[in-house]
Amino acid sequence: MFELYDEDFDAMELVEGALLLNRAVNPKTRVEWAESELKRLLQEAELALISELNEKRRFEALLRLFFFDWGFGGDREHYFDSKNGFIDKVLESRRGIPVSLGAIFLYLSRKLGFPVKAVAFPTQFLLKLEWYNEKPIYIDPFNGDYVSEHTLRGWLIGHKGPFAKLTSDDLSEADNPTIIGRWLALLKGALLREEDFALALKCTDLALMFVPDDPYEIRDRGYIYQRLDCHQVAASDFQYFVEQCPDDPAIELLKSQINMMNETQVVLH
């Protein structure tokens, strides 16, 4: 039974919380192997950086090691594949998405003493490097590039529209529960696209442990149950959403689905 709470996730490294999340979604996740691989990479990084005393050059060396020598990078061909959300698979393939790659790099950076933090930017996961008494530097963990605030404004406008403004909240440090919540949503979306409804259902059940009675999660659970031919449960979840969110644009469609499933139950009985 998965029983971790927000304070538990905040007491561990992000990548460690992600591994627990991964195993809760898919028990076949190789947690022990991933933990061993993370330790191995950390030891290799320590040896590679041992002769460099300047902290900024040490960090540049870590960037090169991670993105060039080790070959970690974004999965451009299969970005939305669910494997990119599982840490063990990302460590094995060295391909992932910003949040999975970023969690691994963040773990190594923090263990090596670099002032790197996580940012849940609206468009994607970012890393923020804050040298003492200097302006923050932002890093795209998809490719290891530094990202200017001008580029971040462009991303935000593309995401929210031409009147979007970049604020300090957009670039503030994010806590682990916030990132894990977004990670879980990404995993669920990928698994739904792949029609792996059994694992997608686990994602929804996990989300409801953290935000009980969330009507949108319950609506999504209803959709999954519908695809699993559990029509009675699906109709109940859809009905809950209709009652809680009567002004949602999808209400009429859901009502139609409820009526159809209820009629199916009557015929079957």
Automatic annotation (TrEMBL):
Q: Which family does the record claim for this protein?
A: Belongs to the UPF0162 family.
Q: What is the lineage of its organism?
A: Bacteria, Pseudomonadati, Pseudomonadota, Gammaproteobacteria, Vibrionales
One Pfam family it belongs to: TPR_9
Q: Which domain of life is it from?
A: Bacteria
Entry's InterPro entries? SirB1_N (IPR032698), TPR-like_helical_dom_sf (IPR011990)
This chain's protein is named: Protein SirB1 N-terminal domain-containing protein
Report the source organism. Vibrio caribbeanicus ATCC BAA-2122
Give every Protein SirB1 N-terminal domain span: 33-184
